[in-house]
Amino acid sequence: MDDIKENVCALLNSGGGTLILKAQADENILAKDCFRSDDVIRAVEQIFQPVIGTACVNSHLSIGNETPDEIVLNVQGFKSLCTLSYNMFLPTDTQVLPIKCDELATVIDLMNINRFIDVTDFENARSIDQFVHNSVFRIKESKTAQFKCLRSEKTKHNDLGSRIIHNKFMTYVSAFANHIGGRIYVGIDDKTGRVVGETITEAEQKDLEMKLQKHIEKMLWPEYCTPPVKGKQWDISFHAVIGSDGCPVQYVYVIVITIYASSGGVFVKAPESYHIVQIRAEESESSEILENKVQPMDFTKWKNRLLYPEGQRGIPRTLSRCDWSSTELRKECDALDGKLLRLINYGKWRDFEREAEKNRPKADDPNRIEIELVLLSKWYVYHYRKGEKDDFKSADNVMVEFNEKFCKSKDSLIFQVRGRLCLSALQRTRGDHEGSYRTAMDCLSDVEKLSPCILTAEFYVHFATMLTIIEGNEVLRGKLKGDLSQNSFKEEAMVFYNRALEHLRRISYVPLSKADMQQKSHINMAILKLGCSLSGDVVDEAVSKEAIEAASTCLKRVNESIVQDGNSLSGFRSCHHKFATSSLHYRRSQHETLIDKRMGLLESAIQAAEEVEFLATKRAQVTTNQLDIFKKRELYHNKSTILQAILKSRSPKTLQVCLDIDNGRDAILDCLRQELVSDRTFIHAVCETPLVSLVELAIEDNEHVLESLDNDDVTPLMKATEAEQLDIVELILSKDSGKKTLSWQKTSTKETALMIACKKGFHKIVKFIMENSDTNMNLGQKDKHDSNVFHHAAKHDNLLCVMIDICRRTEKYKNYKDYLNLKDKVGYVALHLAATSGSYKNVKLLLENDVPYDTLSSSSRTALHYAAFSNIETVEALLEFVKNKIDKPDAVKQFIDAVDSRLQTSLHIAASFGKWQTVSVLLDNGAAIKCDEENETALHLASFAGCTKTVKLLIRNQPAIVKHENRVGETAAMFAALGGQTEVLKILFDNKAKLWAESHGSSVEKRKTCLDWAVENNKPDTAKAILEHTNWKETMEKSAFSPDGLLAMMVKSMPNVAIDVLNKCEKKEKNKTEYDFFALQTKGEKPSGEKRIDNVTAMEALGTMAENSRIECLNHAVVQKFMEQKWSLRARKWYLGCLSIYATFLLSFTAYISLFTQGYASDARCMIISRIICYVFATLNIIRELLQ
After folding, report:
1. Has domain 330-509 been given CATH number 3.30.420?
2. What are 602-617's pLDDT values in tens digits?
3. Given a cut of 70, is residue 623 above it in pLDDT?
4. Residue 583 region by backbone torsions, left for phi larger than 0, else alpha for psi between -120 and 50, else beta
5. Can you give the pLDDT at residue 657?
6. Cβ-based neighbour number of residue 1165 at 10 Å
7. What stretches of 144-249 show up as alpha helix (H) in DSSP?
8. Cis peptide before 227 (omega within 30 of 0)
9. Alpha-carbon Rg for the chain in angstroms
10. CATH architecture of 968-1083+1098-1116
11. Is the pTM higher than 0.85?
12. To 10 degrees, what angle do helices 489-505 and 511-529 make?
């Protein structure tokens, strides 16, 4: 019946057809004595009624013409997909059950990659850390927890891992992953619920983990989590069982296996479904059909058939989400967005401005529009968060520019959502809560179209926050109530917070942004569960104990993120966290009956509330109300506290508030004087901040503090320069106007303030110092690396131009050209550093100022060498200068072909870095393809780097180069194989590159082939590409490892490739199959068909198959045939010979014992003969054992 079931299923899935059943006595299909149509149709109906339904069975299956020996079953094609078993599971409270065949809607819902999973219940039911032997476990079996007690004793072939796996382990994995997650507790009796434990050593724990990982990876997981990762899709922990004496029982543990929810559907194995495959004479669709073959439907085809029904191609059953145009762009934008947002959250405005300027895209950046949009969105947040005068107007101007640009992006929908999110956030900040809600609500449908990312999570958190604000505002709640169908605004907010956490759980990149958003979600959920909103309104007057504990759990998640994962809270998040903690203490006090405990909780709540006020005050984002709170608290009485708050805030506004308080200026001044006396480096810390007024106070009557040095001989001027505090630099230099000494003082590393500014690329500070320094300033001063200011300036666009412009129009710098070509310790001049950083403007400027274009570094490299791995513009600038300014024959060619200390030209370097445009320019200008000290050409390096365009350019220029060998006989093809560059390898093969070197075999070093390199370095795709070559067999025969050894390496590290080799060794013709055993033996003949196998001295591949349990290889027809011939030709004789020796020994020994027991004398003739025979054959047995 199994064959009939498979054939009917295949016909249903393949448009229908006729199934003819014949009674044959020699086959187990149907027996003649039960060959009746009624029995057949009844059996088929019983199978397919649960699969396609009774109505479909009646309409799609019918009996045709019937004879005594034949039944015709007519099958009509099924419009949907017939699946006999989904191999997919879901949990119940006591067990896991397979999803039935008629539950198609459930399967489609589970396979929706974007389905919402509420993991709150699973997160709240966390694992217990202590297990007491024979005690009743407090958690009961449920849809998120199942118990297992493996009572059978473990043996050599039945260890704990095998018993867990054979105990429906993978069905539990599928069930929990398809639900909301769950835990398997191994070592708890599933009948009594008592803790029993399992005996397992530390070594066995590692083996168990590896075995579970191996079987979990065999299951079918969604693409985004394939292969499943420990710690994300699943986890395992071992908890020691505590004995009655309170001590852990040795080697007895409860094993907790955690499975996390995974949207997209998790299958134990591929669903059981069949279809008909047409075997054609040729690959074309018009060729003759030779055979219709029933085959199991592979998972990819089954999935496409299920999600894309016939006639609806392109309209998936599950929602199709919009994703970024490229993964690299998504990661780049999200990383930049997270970095800038953290600076805003910490109130580091100046750092934000510098970082935004630093990341401004260049004109040739392919992602320029997207990067600009990310920067604009963050500038928008910067303006409305900063809260200074006209900042809201600036934010509006930024949004106008953003709206003009986002439609030009490749990912316009994503940036449209980002813009609407920013607008809604600004409306909320302005107090327009209704407008903010409307803007977010209108954008919600667009957000649903996006794949899970940081942006979608951020939007859901923002929208949930708006819902909580509306819930706390009675007027607004009544006005907008009609927008919701059933749930309250509070319930909807919880849904969106959970949705944000679910989206964050799928993100594996930008860990800091992910952690910050998770912290924000948990804190906001805790505040909401405690009956409050972030606007300060009370959502619920009374809160249940369950809600309080749920809020406590959310805050524990935040604490774990801080302590265990090291994700510190930002300034904004710290305020919210303290606010939630204060609310938690207050709500707990409402349920506390003991007066002392209640008062203690209230005191903790008040203390946390005061910390909220203080945190809000000392940050740069200070609102008017928070400033009033700061004044009322009169913190200036504690001088060190107020001074510390001012420094940490880095906010001039906070400083001004403190100075405006009665006696505030005197208090701060007294505190400053004390600090300056006790700590000579305190002025350095002050100069690092933008607090100019505080610096003025510090040096009011004590200017000599500006000459203070810290342990590294750093002056306050250098600290201000390093922190890019231009106003303070101007202040210090104005105080030093008489002595003119501070600007050229050196640190312990011989750096001056001007050097530090040049190193950091601070244009304004460099300009100010140069224009206001004394006449003794020496631009040729060197630091510990012998670098001067021009070395540092050459790395920054426009900075060098500013400096040279000042030098040209200032008399004191008239000798500046003397310092432009000075070398540092490694022989670099400013031109080399400009070329390295890709600053073609600086390169042109230096050449215009008489810097020699062909200056060599200590490694004999010219500027062209360094430009070759930066950008094409710098290369073109150098070549253009040589063409137009150098009046020498072949000057350009000599410049291009100049070699360094390793005999490499600029063409080598450009090729090794995949700079195909640079390679093209160099070749167009007559670059010669030379060999370096290893006799390697640019093609060798380009092949290893994997740049196909570079490879094509080099081959087009010099086709014979593909056969060139380096010193150890390696060709470009071998370099490509070593680097796993499959596409490059195909190009080389198309240009007649060989799989082995011309000098192959002349020395040990020159024996490796392309296939050797690919297999040795575990490059399976490359190895497969090589095996497609017509000379694949000869390549294996020439292997440095021998064919047998090479196949053994494949079996160990890439079994799929080994299967491909074995498939190639089996040649099927019409009536004959030929086998080639060359890859299974090291010496002797290479037989095919039935030839003898002689002189086989090694079988490394077979041994590796057995050692690594490669069953699929051992079961291959070629291997089976090889072992069969070995048995028939040699092993059978050896076995029968050994059996004869043992049988003779056994008979003679039996005769000897029988004679001895019957009383024969030891010197009797029969006894002597039996004894001799025993001695002889015992000796032969020992020799046989030793040989074997």
Report:
1. no
2. 777 777 777 776 666 5
3. no
4. alpha
5. 67
6. 9
7. 160-165, 169-178, 202-218
8. yes
9. 40
10. Alpha Horseshoe (1.25)
11. no
12. 160
